[in-house]
Amino acid sequence: MKTLKKINKIALLTTLVLFLTVYLGMLAQIPLGIIQVISAIYLTIETYHKSDYAKKHLSIYWIVAISELVLFFIKNYYFPITNDAIEWSLMVFFPMSIAIYFYMIMRKIVAEFEYGSETNIQNNRNYES
């Protein structure tokens, strides 16, 4: 799981840096999304029934991620009129917010399984600060 965390961290930071040039940042969202969906599937399979934190937050992640896809589909096929605010929200802001949320919950889930309990996670969080 440490490797999973490193891959996601590199992909997320690379995407954020590439947003200095908006076009490259938007292109970098494609591999980031693929990496995070594969990671979420793996975490869901491995940790969903072993941790209440994982169950709660992975459920939220899947609901939000699928909702984003549904909104994108509805916007493009039923309301093809362009509106820049909606376009930017659906193509940049929402996906990057979901990616950052996933990275945050993934870090905590990995820490929970590396250290074994919530107490150790709290100690580790205090140590990192």
Summarize the structure.
It contains five helices and no strands.
Structure overview:
With 129 residues, the protein is mainly alpha-helical. It is built from five helices and no strands. Helix 1 packs antiparallel against helix 4, helix 3 runs antiparallel to helix 4 and helix 4 crosses helix 5. The longest helix is centred in the C-terminal third of the chain and has 32 residues. The model has no long low-confidence stretch (mean pLDDT 88).
Low-confidence stretches: none
Count of DSSP H/I helices: 5
The total of beta strands comes to 0
What percent of residues are in strands? under 5%
Query: What is the radius of gyration computed over CA atoms, rounded to a whole number of angstroms?
Result: 16 Å
**Please, what is the average pLDDT?**
88
Given the helix and strand composition, which structural class is it? mainly alpha
For the report, how would you describe the main beta sheet? none
List keywords for this structure.
single chain, 129 residues, mainly alpha, 5 helices, 88% helix, 0% strand
SSE blueprint:
Elements: H1 2-18, H2 22-47, H3 52-78, H4 84-115, H5 118-128
